Amino acid sequence: MSGPTVGVLALQGDVREHVAALTGAGADARPVRRPEELDAVHGLVIPGGESTTISKLADIFELREPIDKRIAGGMPVYGSCAGMIMLAREVLDGRPDQRGFDGLEMTVRRNAFGRQVDSFEAPVAVDGVEGGPFHAVFIRAPWVERVGDGVEVLGTVTEGPAAGRIVAVRQGNLLATSFHPELTGDLRLHRYFVELVRAAT
Ligand SMILES: NC(=O)CC[C@H](N)C(=O)O
């Protein structure tokens, strides 16, 4: 059986890595830059990168409204790092003009881990994903400061100065992680997402 068609929002960020990970996870993966390309996919990944830039380009490429509509219609979306910020209803320490999609009922803090741990790696177990903790890579990552009703916390940092911080969440078909599984060759999270897309299609 061929896999579901999954797009990667290709405005800015590590698009190629997500396309490769999704392909490895069995999806028919492709970049999405135009509304017509969005129409052709059953799920969408918002990559890591720079959320302020992605926000600006989403308006310029006229993708904001179509993406919000697809989210409202139940399309599965997975955001990693900047993608998590783009999927949050509220952003702390964001730029005043940046705006996310109508995504998860949560508040994220941008660049939350601060200078000392700007970039770091830590084991993170994700509920629903078997095989032990992820070797999670954080690069100027956000954390989740508050979750609303209906948002499931799937993973927290378990050691070091950031212990206890929420870094993986899910609300219905929306999934977000502070870290970048697309950079470590661990396909489990992309497989989990591709299954979600398959189930929703
Ligand atoms: N690795 C990343 O995606 C970094 C996110 C970036 N700091 C932002 O605010 O969008």
TrEMBL record:
Q: Which domain of life is it from?
A: Bacteria
UniProt GO MF annotations: glutaminase activity; pyridoxal 5'-phosphate synthase (glutamine hydrolysing) activity
Instruction: List the Pfam families hit by this protein, alphabetically.
Output: SNO (PF01174)
E.C. code: 4.3.3.6, 3.5.1.2
Q: Which pathway?
A: Cofactor biosynthesis; pyridoxal 5'-phosphate biosynthesis
Q: Which CDD domains match?
A: GATase1_PB
Catalytic reaction equation(s): L-glutamine + H2O = L-glutamate + NH4(+); aldehydo-D-ribose 5-phosphate + D-glyceraldehyde 3-phosphate + L-glutamine = pyridoxal 5'-phosphate + L-glutamate + phosphate + 3 H2O + H(+)
Q: Which InterPro entries match?
A: Class_I_gatase-like (IPR029062), PdxT/SNO (IPR002161), PdxT/SNO_CS (IPR021196)
Q: Name one GO cellular component term.
A: cytosol
Q: Where is the signal peptide?
A: none
Which sites are catalytic? 81 (nucleophile), 180 (charge relay system), 182 (charge relay system)
Where L-glutamine binds, per the record, is at 49-51, 110, 139-140
BP GO annotations? L-glutamine catabolic process; pyridoxal phosphate biosynthetic process; pyridoxine metabolic process
Swiss-Prot/TrEMBL keywords:
Glutamine amidotransferase, Hydrolase, Lyase, Pyridoxal phosphate
- Subunit-structure text: In the presence of PdxS, forms a dodecamer of heterodimers. Only shows activity in the heterodimer.
- Main function: Catalyzes the hydrolysis of glutamine to glutamate and ammonia as part of the biosynthesis of pyridoxal 5'-phosphate. The resulting ammonia molecule is channeled to the active site of PdxS.
Which NCBIfam families does the UniProt record give?
PLP_synth_Pdx2
Q: To which protein family does this belong?
A: Belongs to the glutaminase PdxT/SNO family.
Which PANTHER family is this protein grouped with? PYRIDOXAL 5'-PHOSPHATE SYNTHASE SUBUNIT SNO, PYRIDOXAL 5'-PHOSPHATE SYNTHASE SUBUNIT SNO1-RELATED
- Name of this chain's protein: Pyridoxal 5'-phosphate synthase subunit PdxT
Q: What gene name is given for the protein in this entry? A: pdxT
